[in-house]
Amino acid sequence: MRPYHILSLGGYIVEWDFPYRNLIIVNKISEPIKIEIPVFHEEWIEEHRDLGLDVIPVKKDDNYLSMWKKAHAELDKIRPKNERL
To answer: What is the pTM assigned to this prediction?
Structure first.
């Protein structure tokens, strides 16, 4: 995952009984981080948090768009100007 980048893994969750409908992943550091997809188990969340990623689980009743915009705004505050989209 590129430095200072955000993405959504909703289409990469393959476990039928996974407790979240989507995961928002944020890399807030200046180094790329390799992530494993698809997502097969809930332990994936902690494993990738341990790598330095922000992993934001989206539950069935959560407002995905609101959560995405909040995470994106937080990322924009720390993203260097030369890294902006």
So the answer is: 0.90
